[in-house]
Design brief:
single chain, mainly alpha, 2 helices, 88% helix
């Protein structure tokens, strides 16, 4: 407990110097850049980084391929839908043409029957 100890100025200076010396020794104790352990650790980090980048590139390629496949499938569905709509439009056009032809034939029959009745009336008056 420091409260019972009256540390003087000189004691504080020596304590600060000892702390500085301990810090310097701790810094000097660290291995330098040419130390085999540091080189091995850096090589391991590089390998991990390269593997991570490779996995990311593979994942990106997979996503791009999946997106391309989805777009192709969507385009195929759209083409099928357009072909189906074109076929339906063609069928509707054919039905309409048949209906017009049937109506024209029916109208021609009605006109022929009317003309026959008219001719019969004319023939009866003579």
């Amino acid at each position: 407990m420091n409260s019972f100890k009256n540390a003087g100025f000189a004691d504080r200076l020596t304590a600060a110097a000892a702390a500085r010396k301990a810090l310097i020794e701790k810094f000097r104790a660290q291995p330098d850049a040419n130390d085999p352990a540091v080189i091995a650790r850096e090589a391991e980090r590089q390998a991990i980084r390269a593997a991570r980048e490779e996995r990311a590139a593979k994942a990106q390629l997979a996503r791009a391929a999946q997106l391309r496949a989805a777009q192709e499938a969507k385009a195929a569905q759209e083409a099928e839908r357009l072909a189906r709509e074109a076929e339906e439009a063609l069928q509707a056009e054919l039905r309409y043409a048949e209906q017009v032809a049937a109506d024209a034939a029916h109208e021609a029959e009605r006109k022929a029957a009317r003309d026959a009745r008219y001719a019969a009336r004319k023939a009866a008056r003579r």
